Input
Amino acid sequence: MTAAATRQTYSISELSREFDITTRTIRFYEEADMLQPERQGQARVYSDRDRIKLKLILRGKRLGFSLAESRELIEMYDPASDNRHQLEALLGKIRERREALERQLLDIRAMQSELDEAESRCLSALSG
Output
């Protein structure tokens, strides 16, 4: 059996259902040149590679990475290497994201404190 004969393909609706996203979302990633499905007439036919890329794009999105950051990491993948460079880049992005979240958390805590103080002043003024 040839590699082409054993290759798994997916329709846009299959990927949409599998990842619980809209077909419009998948087309957006196509337009951003992140996915390159083959065409069979009007139908898009996605390869295993497209499916894996989509999975990585969505994982990056959940982690708060921009599309550009996800693209950069995905493009670093080299099946012929140990991907150390890609993994080190991913670790760097994770550290950056974690630091940004820590800053946001400090900002949120400061805002909560300010809201508590404003609420206390308002309640004091109403009761006095």
About this structure: DSSP finds six helices and three strands in the chain. The radius of gyration is 23 Å. The chain has a mean pLDDT of 92. Residues 82-128 form one domain.
